[in-house]
Amino acid sequence: MPSPDSTPPSRLQLPPGPWATVLDALCARFPAIDRERWRDRFARGRVLDGDGNALAVDAVHRVGLEVRYFREVADEPPIDGDVRLVHVDAHLVVVDKPHFLPVMPAGRFVRETLLARLVALLGNPQLVPLHRIDRDTAGLVLFSADPGSRARYSALFAHRRVEKSYEALAPALRDLEFPHVRSSRLERGEPFFRMREVPGPPDSHSRIDVLQRGDGPWRYALVPITGRKHQLRVHMAALGAPIANDRLYPRVSPVADDPARPLRLLARKLAFADPLDGRAREFTSGRPL
């Protein structure tokens, strides 16, 4: 059930706890949202049960109860950029995302997300992203349109049966042999939204090749063999060739979104064997790098 602005609800299964009501549990789970704001959301029908029915403000807490709630952010900044549909059928939606647009609600973005725009555009509140790319990254994202086939498509990503190809602009790596595989162990860094390489058995692997050399930045083909957060960005920076206009690596640059200086990273291709009929599927972003 979408909200009036077509933003799908977030979902939470209530855990065990000492709370008498759903309201009490939500206040404990989200301490940054005061009790009166939650009461206002209940009053406006913005807190639902798993069947999409509005919950009363005194609804009794029950372990495992699914609660759907609509996130709200005051003064949410608008994000420019067109959402381009690449493919739509009963099971899959493939979309070409612009820079700076988050895939899912997070932080200060709720309405200004790829998911919300697609739900409004296609009128399908059942849409769910099968994978994600960074807000700063442009390119292809695959959505499930049908809950009945969702698990079979999700399994493609879980078992690494989707070929994901990226392109990037970055400084020349003249002393490196290509193709090159960067392998390292990644963990959360500082601030919390960054990743960093640390000693230990590698858990991230990226294949890097060169598509175009020149006197300025080179164009690289990047393939994430594994799918760790910010993996390609961390690996390129660690090699001494941070992706052009990267605001996080090798160091944080506190600059605002600048359409004239987007991260030069594009999710160019997705390819896989369709789990429903076995046919080869391949999709390509038409955006310039």
Global Rg: 21 Å
Stated plainly, the CATH topology of the largest domain is called Pseudouridine synthase
- Total number of helical segments? 5
Runs with pLDDT <50, length 5+?
1-5
If classified by CATH, what would the architecture of the largest domain be?
A: 2-Layer Sandwich
Q: What structural class is derived from the secondary structure elements?
A: alpha+beta
E-strand count: 14
- Our count of domains comes out at 3
Largest sheet: 11 strands, mixed
The CATH homologous superfamily name of the largest domain equals Pseudouridine synthase
| SS strand fraction | 25-35%
Shape field: globular
What does this molecule look like?
The protein has 3 domains: 10-69, Structural Genomics Hypothetical 15.5 Kd Protein In mrcA-pckA Intergenic Region, Chain A, CATH 3.10.290.10; 84-162, Pseudouridine synthase (2-Layer Sandwich), CATH 3.30.2350.10; 166-265, Pseudouridine synthase (2-Layer Sandwich), CATH 3.30.2350.10. The longest helix has 12 residues, at 147-158. The protein has 5 helices and 14 strands. With 289 residues, the chain is an alpha+beta fold. Strands 4, 5, 6, 7, 8, 9, 10, 11, 12, 13 and 14 form an 11-stranded mixed sheet that branches. The two termini are 36 Å apart.
